[in-house]
Design a protein that fits this description.
The complex is a heterodimer.
Chain A (H helix, E strand, L loop, with lengths): L1 H10 L1 H33 L4 H15 L3 H11 L9 H26 L3 H9 L4 H31 L11 H11 L3 H29 L10
Helix pairs in contact in A: 2-5, 2-8, 3-5, 4-5, 5-7, 6-7, 7-9, 8-9
Chain B lengths: L1 E10 L2 E11 L4 E5 L6 H8 L7 E6 L2 E2 L7 H6 L1 E4 L11 H11 L5 H14 L15 H13 L5 E5 L7 H16 L3 E5 L3 H7 L2 E6 L2 E6 L1 H6 L4 H10 L3
Parallel strand pairs in B: 3-8, 3-9, 6-7, 7-8
Antiparallel strand pairs in B: 1-2, 1-4, 4-5, 9-10
Helix pairs in contact in B: 3-4, 3-5, 4-5, 5-6
The chains are: A mainly alpha, B alpha/beta.
Chain lengths: 224, 242
């Protein structure tokens, strides 16, 4: 019986690959977009403008304080009511990128705040302009502190991408739901789904661990 | 070169600079001393705008500090500042530390900036440390890199905020030697320090501050041998006792 189920499962490998591809594509695009936006937000968050900083703070708290499932539904079902038509993939990318940007914003901002004021003063005193201070002095040191938690956050976000199956995207999790209707062995099917996520996440976990041990190094920028 | 006219500053309710009037001439070396909390660090931090002033005029090299029309980045490029805690960039080598501002602020070509940087590091006695990171250097070496970092900008004015206070005793003289050589080349300098030997050797004037005000100002000879106020006498008896 188990053997039959296995054969049937092997038969659905094209579907599984499609799901894995969808999960990887969603994660990759959202993490790239989220990282870029998150860095920009983190820099603005710690910049001089109180109004911008507070507005970002409110948005970040709002996103971090509500379930991701609710955010996806809001984007997918409410935006069309306002006349903005979105396909499920775009909605998923927007929701996941936004979530990533908010978490990354806080990580980057914490890293920037942890750079000693003496460093900023030294850069200021030598006549470096605002962006030069950020680019040459503050960000390299902030990155040193931010990189391990950043990579750890990537792992969490990849796993959060499973929630997009709720709006009908055929990602790894949804493939699991589809297959389990044909092969009535939830344990087996979702164990394989779990392995799929693990295969994507494990290299990142290793990377985060490696970066963390490098933090002990006495000096220098973190080099991958 | 540096002109304070009736400058005041408050930290909240605390009146940290009281009606400061002080004029530093070109090529003059002024040592600022006084008990801790007397406002001497705040005073020199105002000169390059690390601290803002409340009222009065502060004119540095023809620029009005605190005036919104003044380009502070331009002014700061002309004013070197040496910190008590060195504040070298830990992710950059000694050579990268001294060439950063020349390359990005002065827009000097990298090769020329590096040649000048090597020359300057050699001058402060660190010819063998070009590629060392700050964490690999002693406190005295770090402070000498910090001074070289300022000198590479060819500044018109150098400010020193207790440059030897964070150093082990045996490293103080190597930093003071560099400062003396800078002074002897005719640099305009304001130096917050308690190194009275340095003051005697190169300062044209000693300014004594207490509780945010300039209490006394005179040549090192006058100040050390014949302090005019009770407060300066009390201060000198404390630091010169040993």
């Amino acid at each position: 019986m188990i053997w039959q189920q296995f054969q049937s499962l092997i038969g659905s490998y094209p579907l599984a690959l499609r799901g894995l591809g969808m999960t990887v594509a969603l994660s990759l695009i959202s993490l790239v977009v989220g990282t870029l936006v998150g860095f920009a937000l983190g820099i603005l968050r710690t910049g001089g403008n109180q109004l911008i900083s507070r507005a970002i703070g409110v948005w970040v708290d709002l996103i971090r304080g509500t379930p991701f499932l609710v955010q996806i539904f809001l984007i997918f079902f409410i935006l069309p009511e306002l006349g903005i038509e979105l396909d499920a993939f775009t909605a998923g990318i927007i929701a996941l990128s936004n979530l990533a940007a908010c978490f990354i914003c806080e990580i980057v901002a914490a890293g920037i705040r942890a750079v000693p004021t003496g460093q900023v003063e030294a850069a200021l005193a030598s006549g470096l302009a605002r962006w030069q201070r950020m680019r040459q002095v503050v960000l390299p040191q902030a990155m040193r502190m931010s990189l391990p938690p950043l990579v750890g956050q990537y792992v969490l976000l990849i796993k959060d991408s499973s929630v997009v199956s709720a709006i009908g995207l055929t990602d790894l999790t949804r493939v699991g739901w589809l297959v389990v209707q044909r092969v009535p062995n939830g344990l087996l099917v979702f164990a394989i789904v779990g392995i799929g996520y693990f295969v994507v996440c494990y290299p990142l976990i290793l990377l985060a661990r490696r970066l963390e041990s490098r933090m002990g190094a006495a000096h220098g920028e973190v080099q991958l | 070169m540096i002109e304070f006219r009736g400058v005041n500053k408050w930290f909240g309710a605390l009146h940290v600079l009281k009606d400061i009037t002080l004029n530093v001439e070109p090529r003059e070396v002024v040592v600022v001393c006084g008990p801790s909390g007397s406002g001497k660090s705040t005073l020199i931090r105002c000169v390059n705008g690390l601290e803002s002033t409340k009222d009065g005029d502060l004119v540095v090299d023809g620029h009005r500090v605190g005036d919104p029309a003044t380009d502070m980045t331009e002014l700061r490029a002309e004013v070197g500042f040496v910190f008590q805690s060195f504040n070298l960039y830990p992710h950059k080598t000694a050579l990268e530390n001294v060439t950063l501002a020349p390359i990005h602020v002065r827009k000097i070509a990298r090769s020329a900036a590096e040649a000048a940087g090597r020359e300057m590091l050699a001058r402060v006695g660190l010819a063998d440390k070009f590629n060392a990171y700050p964490s690999e250097l002693s406190g005295g070496q770090q402070q000498r890199v910090a001074i070289a970092r300022c000198l590479c900008m060819r500044p018109k004015i150098m400010l020193f905020d207790e440059p030897t206070s964070a150093l082990d005793p045996e490293m103080i003289s190597e930093v003071l030697d560099v400062m003396v050589s800078v002074a002897e080349e005719g640099m305009t300098m304001m130096v917050v320090t308690h190194e009275m030997g340095f003051a005697r050797k190169v300062a044209q004037r000693v300014v004594f501050m207490d509780a945010g005000a300039i209490v006394e100002s005179g040549t090192p000879e006058e100040f050390f041998s014949n302090p005019k106020t009770d407060r300066s006498r009390a201060f000198l008896s404390k630091i010169l006792r040993h």
